[in-house]
Design brief:
- It contains eleven helices and 23 strands.
- The chain is an alpha+beta fold and about 475 residues long.
- A hairpin with a 2-residue loop joins β16 (about 375-380) and β17 (about 385-390).
- α3 (about 110-125) packs parallel to α7 (about 240-255) and α4 packs across α5 (about 175-185).
- Residues about 5-10, about 15, about 55-65, about 455-460 and about 465-470 have low confidence and may be disordered.
C-alpha cells in the first residue's frame, strides 16, 4: 500500500486551496479582515478602560503623607514628695508627667472607684436605675464599728437606700458600708465580691492589680468580707496608671463626679417611706473647711474630686481631678504622699505635680471648625475641591523648651468617599508629636477628627466631573 509523504499531503492541501474559486478567496480574506479589526478594537477598548481605572485610582486614592518630624511631648519626670505620681490630660489621656507610674501600691478607699464604674455600666445597660432601692445586709451593716477607723453611714441591717444615695455616699464620704452594699447588689449571685471586682478589673484592662473587697480594707479588717485564702495583710493594689484608667472611665461615664467636691454635706434617708433624714460631712466639705486654705497653690488650681485613700504601708493617696484657670482638666494620682493619717500632704503633692507640668509643658489647641496646619483643599465635593477642617477641638501638650506655637499633622493629599452626611467624620489625623497615652484610650479620642467644611456632600474627582458634565 502506498503511503503519502508529508510533503505530498502539504502539497495536496496547497493545491486544494489554490483550486478554490476566486470569489471564495475574496470572502475568506474579508472575514479575516473584520475579525482582525474586531480584535483590534476590543484591545483598544480594554486598554482605555485599564488606563482610565488606573488613572482614577491614582487620582482618587486617599493619600496621607507624614512629615516624619515629631515635636517632643513626652511626659516630664515629676520631682514631687511622693513615692509615685501621675498627671494625665483628662480629655485625651495624654500622659504629661509621671514618677513610678507602673509601680503597684496599696490603694485603700480608691478601690471604691471600681464598684462605681461597674454600677455606672449597669445603669447604662438598663439593669437598674438611680432610684432602685438597695437593702443593707447584715454583712454590710457597719453601724457598730468605730467611725474614726471605718467610715460608714448610720444605717442598719434591713434598711434600704437608693443606688444614688449609696453611690454618692461611697464617693463623697468614702462610706465603707455603702460600697460593700452596692457591690453585693451589683455582683452576680453566683460570684463572691472578690470575683466581682476581679471580673470588672479584667474588663477594664487593669492587668497589674489585686482585689479582695469593695471597701479597700486590709484583709484582716474586712470582717465578713475577709478572703480566707489570702493573708491577713493582703490589700487591694494597683498601679497609678490603673487608677488613672479607672478615673478616666468614670469621668467619661458620669460627668457629675466633677460636682462632688461642691457638696459640703451628704443628705440621705434610710427607708424611703420614712421622713427622717441624716446628714454627714463630705470629703469635699472637710477639704474646703480644713485643708484648702493651708495649701500652696500659686496657679489657683481647682480640686474637683475624685477619691482619697491611704494605708499604713502605702501612705497618703489621692486620685484627683484638677482644673487650671484656662479650663484644662487633669487626672492625677499620688501615692506615698506623707503619712496615711496626713490629710493635707496628698493634696499638696497633687498640686505640686500639676504645677510642675504647667511649668514644663505648654498646651497647643486646634479649635473646632478651623483649618488644620499643613492641610490644603483635599476633598472633592460636587462643587469642586473643599477644605477638611477640625470637627472637634483637641489640645496637645509639648515641652516648653521646644518653643513651637503649632503642631503639624500628616498631610492629607486627597480624601475621597461617595457621600458625607451632616457631622460625619471623614478621617482622624495623628499629630506629629512624640507622646504617650493611657493604654485603654482609643486613638479616636486623642487623634484629631476631620470633616468637610460647611458639611458639603463629598464625592470623588470623577464624580465632580460627572456632576459638572450632566448638571451644568
Amino acid at each position: 500500500m502506498h503511503v503519502k509523504h508529508p510533503f505530498e499531503r502539504k502539497t495536496s492541501f496547497k493545491m486544494r486551496f489554490s483550486s478554490l474559486h476566486p470569489h471564495d478567496k475574496e470572502n475568506k480574506e474579508q472575514r479575516r479582515f473584520w475579525w482582525r479589526l474586531l480584535f483590534s478594537l476590543l484591545a483598544v477598548i480594554l486598554l482605555v478602560i485599564g488606563c482610565y481605572a488606573g488613572l482614577a485610582y491614582w487620582n482618587n486614592r486617599n493619600q496621607v503623607v507624614a512629615s516624619g518630624h515629631k515635636v517632643d511631648g513626652s511626659p516630664v519626670a515629676l520631682k514631687v514628695n511622693a513615692r509615685s505620681a501621675l498627671v494625665i490630660d483628662a480629655s485625651t489621656g495624654q500622659i504629661l508627667g509621671q514618677k513610678n507610674a507602673n509601680q503597684k501600691v496599696g490603694i485603700a478607699s480608691q478601690s471604691k472607684m471600681l464598684t462605681a464604674y461597674a454600677v455606672l455600666q449597669a445603669i447604662k445597660k438598663g439593669d437598674y436605675d438611680w432610684n432602685t432601692p438597695v437593702k443593707v445586709t447584715q454583712s454590710s451593716d457597719w453601724s457598730d464599728k468605730d467611725n474614726a477607723m471605718y467610715a460608714h453611714l448610720e444605717v442598719h441591717n434591713g434598711e434600704t437606700l437608693t443606688v444614688k444615695e449609696l453611690f454618692d455616699a461611697m464617693f463623697t464620704t468614702s462610706a465603707n458600708d455603702a460600697s460593700l452594699a452596692l457591690a453585693d447588689f451589683a455582683k452576680k449571685k453566683s460570684e463572691t465580691q472578690q470575683e466581682f471586682l476581679q471580673r470588672w478589673a479584667k474588663k477594664l484592662g487593669l492587668t497589674n492589680s489585686d482585689w479582695y473587697n469593695a471597701a479597700g480594707q486590709v484583709n484582716d479588717d474586712a470582717f465578713d468580707y475577709r478572703v480566707k485564702s489570702a493573708s491577713a495583710t493582703a490589700e487591694n493594689q494597683a498601679t497609678p496608671k490603673d487608677l488613672a484608667v479607672l478615673a478616666y472611665q468614670i469621668i467619661s461615664a458620669d460627668p457629675d463626679v466633677r460636682k462632688y467636691y461642691d457638696k459640703v454635706g451628704l443628705v440621705y434617708r434610710p427607708n424611703a417611706n420614712e421622713a427622717a433624714t441624716k446628714i454627714k460631712l463630705t470629703e469635699g466639705g472637710k477639704f474646703d473647711q480644713e485643708i484648702k486654705g493651708k495649701l500652696n497653690n500659686p496657679n489657683n488650681l481647682t480640686v474637683e474630686g475624685l477619691k482619697t485613700g491611704s494605708t499604713p504601708s502605702s501612705g497618703g493617696g489621692l486620685t484627683g481631678l484638677i482644673k487650671d484657670q484656662n479650663g484644662h482638666e487633669f487626672i492625677t494620682v499620688v501615692s506615698g504622699a506623707g503619712k496615711y493619717t496626713d490629710s493635707k500632704e496628698r493634696y499638696q503633692v497633687t498640686l505640686d505635680a500639676v504645677n510642675q507640668v504647667l511649668n514644663e509643658q505648654q498646651p497647643i489647641t486646634v479649635a473646632k471648625n478651623t483649618k488644620v496646619s499643613g492641610q490644603t483643599k483635599n476633598a472633592w465635593s460636587k462643587t469642586g475641591r473643599v477644605q477638611l477642617v477640625a470637627k472637634e477641638a483637641r489640645t496637645y501638650w509639648v515641652k516648653r523648651a521646644t518653643k513651637v506655637s503649632s503642631l503639624s499633622f500628616a498631610h492629607v493629599a486627597r480624601q475621597n468617599s461617595q457621600s458625607l452626611s451632616d457631622d460625619e467624620t471623614v478621617r482622624w489625623l495623628s499629630p506629629e508629636l512624640k507622646a504617650s497615652y493611657l493604654p485603654t484610650v482609643s486613638k479616636e479620642v486623642h487623634d484629631l477628627p476631620l470633616t468637610n467644611q460647611e458639611m458639603m456632600e463629598q464625592t470623588t474627582r470623577w464624580g465632580y466631573y460627572r456632576h459638572w458634565l450632566f448638571n451644568w
